[in-house]
Amino acid sequence: MAGLNLRSVLVTGANQGIGLGFVKQFLENSNPPEWVFATCQDPAGERMQELQNLAAKHQNLVIVALDVTDPASIKAAAARGETHLKGSGLNLLINNAGMAKLSTLESETPEDTALVYATNVTGPLLVSQAFLPLLKQAAQGSPQRGLSCSKAAIVNISSEGGSIQNVGGWHVVQIISYRCSKAALNMLTKCQALGYGGDGILSVAVHPGWVKTDMENSISVQAPLTVEASVRGMLNVLATLSEKENGAFVNWEGKVLPW
Predict the structure, then answer these.
(1) Considering only CA atoms, which of 206, 190, 240, 192 is closest in space to residue 22?
(2) What is d(CA 26, CA 9) in angstroms, rounded to the nearest whole number?
(3) Which pLDDT score is estimated for 223?
(4) In the chain, which residues have pLDDT < 70?
(5) Contact (CB, 8 A) for 215 and 222
(6) Which of 32, 121, 124, 161 has the fewest CB within 10 Å, making it most exposed?
(7) Are 102 and 218 in contact (CB under 8 A)?
(8) DSSP the chain
(9) What pLDDT shows up at residue 215?
(10) Can you give the pLDDT at residue 1?
(11) In angstroms, rounded to a whole number, what is the distance separating the alpha carbons of residues 11 and 235?
């Protein structure tokens, strides 16, 4: 994570998988952020023990309730973040929360498609809208020129499965709604880059690699990459990004991926 100098970061879907991996590595850094906001649907729910243990050890970790499919929950989370940040703004927003439903072209349903899209596309859109004032504050208060993840940035965790050219992993699993949602998330990222770049905010879509998570386990495939290695790689990449990569689609190793 050398090169990233953050006062504040917020990670959605932070109670497990890649989101929890981000939180751990931010906290373990030799120069950790002053504030690490870890959001999840239900802070008192299942699968929260590890995150709660971290919060007990790190005073800079704040667990925030945030359901990316609930606009009221998103607004409440932004208000809580603003209370802690006290005018300094939010440097980095990582839209990590996501979901997949097993499906084929023959089995995909309207209900699953709507739920996946609401989580993977509309969620990042609404979360970014809600935290935009805080991102703008960070950008305006930064002495840095240009764009960077240390200044103010939106990072959307995407997937090569949403690449129309590559269609990664099609021979393994079709997951139609997931692929379509990630292609839409990539377009959202490009739109955010065009819309927010003038405010000093960098926007980028990142493919974390084929990672061993509960989502991968649910589709019965063996992923070769650990969460720790994926997150470490992504953080190293984020530290190098500038205005040249605004609106780009890159992977955990920094390679630009085709749309």
Answers:
(1) 206
(2) 9
(3) 65
(4) 1-2, 213-223
(5) no
(6) 32
(7) yes
(8) -TT---SEEEESSTTSHHHHHHHHHHHHSSS--SEEEEEES-TTSTT-HHHHHHHHH-TTEEEEE--TT-HHHHHHHHHHHHHHHTTS--SEEEE---------TTT--HHHHHHHHIIIIIHHHHHHHHHHHHHHHHHHH----S--TTTSEEEEE--GGG-TTT-TTTTT---HHHHHHHHHHHHHHHHHHHHHGGGT-EEEEEE--SB-SHHHHHTT----B-HHHHHHHHHHHHTT--GGGTT-EEETTSPBPP-
(9) 53
(10) 55
(11) 13
56 burial type by CB count under 10 A (0-12 exposed, 13-18 middle, 19+ buried): exposed
Report the predicted TM-score, pTM, of the whole model to 2 decimal places: 0.94
The pLDDT assigned to 170 comes to 85
Closest CA to 177 of 98, 123, 249, 252: 98
- pLDDT score recorded for residue 172: 86
pLDDT for the residue numbered 91? 98
Residue pair 4/85 in contact by the 8 Å Cβ criterion: no
CB within 8 Å of 37: residues ≥ 6 apart: 8, 9, 10, 11, 62, 64, 81, 84
Number of neighbours of residue 12 by Cβ within 10 angstroms: 27
Q: Give residue 220's pLDDT.
A: 45
Q: Provide the 10 A C-beta neighbour count for residue 34.
A: 13
> In the structure encoding, which two tokens stand for residue 47, read together?
């699968």
